[in-house]
Amino acid sequence: SLREELTVLGRQVEDAGRVLEGIGRSISYDLDGEESYGAYLRRESAQISDAYSSSDRSLSELEGKFRQGQEQGGREESRLGDSFLGLLLHARALLRETRYVSSGLRDKYDLLALTVRSHGARLSRLKNDYLRA
Predict the structure, then answer these.
(1) Residue 90 CA from chain centroid, whole number
(2) Following DSSP, what letter does each residue of 12-42 receive, concatenated?
(3) pLDDT digit of tens for each residue in the chain (133 aa)?
(4) What gap in Å lies between CA 47 and CA 114, rounded to an integer?
(5) Do residues 25 and 33 make contact, with C-beta atoms less than 8 angstroms apart?
(6) What is d(CA 90, CA 86) in angstroms, rounded to the nearest whole number?
(7) Can you tell me whether residue 109 is helix, strand or coil?
(8) What is the pTM of this model?
(9) Cα–Cα distances in Å, from 125 out to 12, 75, 121, 131?
(10) Which Gene Ontology cellular component terms are annotated (predicted)?
(11) 70: Cβ–Cβ under 8 A, 6 or more apart, which residues?
(12) Residues in Cβ contact with 21 at an 8 Å cutoff, skipping those fewer than 6 apart
């Protein structure tokens, strides 16, 4: 029976070996091919650091582009504001000129109306003189 016990014990050792081998494979799969958990963590840490650096660079580029867009927008707004101000000044100058011309025309109209009344009075007097004669 010692033989049977040694056979059973041998089978148990083989079973335990298979279980340990399966656990080893499972651990190596979990460690993604690394030899130790420390090496696995160092690699994961390096990958996280690379991803952080990459995202930090991307954010910096995005911030730079945003600032550049704001500066361009500010320049465009300034240029539009200057153009609009130029148009307002031009319109104001045209209105002043129109008002000046209008006042001159009003003076000429008043003078013409006075002349017409004066000529009308002279014509009326001439007509009366003619009818009396």
Answers:
(1) 32
(2) HHHHHHHHHHHHHHHHHHHTTT-SSHHHHHH
(3) 778 888 888 888 888 888 888 777 666 666 666 666 677 777 878 887 788 788 888 888 888 888 887 788 777 777 877 888 888 888 888 888 887 777 777 777 777 778 888 888 888 888 888 888 7
(4) 99
(5) no
(6) 6
(7) helix
(8) 0.37
(9) 152, 74, 6, 10
(10) endoplasmic reticulum; extracellular region; Golgi apparatus
(11) none
(12) none
Query: Which tokens hold the place of 85?
Result: 């101000």
CB 40 within 8 A of CB 34: yes
Q: Where are the domains of the chain?
A: 36-132
128 Cβ contact partners less than 8 Å away, ≥ 6 residues apart: none
Q: What's the rounded Cα separation, in Å, for the pair 18 and 15?
A: 5
Residues 6+ apart with CB under 8 A from 98: none
List the structure tokens of 35: 């030899």
* End-to-end CA separation in angstroms for the chain: 178
Q: In angstroms, rounded to a whole number, what is the distance separating the alpha carbons of residues 24 and 16?
A: 12
Query: What contacts 32, CB < 8 A, 6 or more positions away?
Result: 40, 43
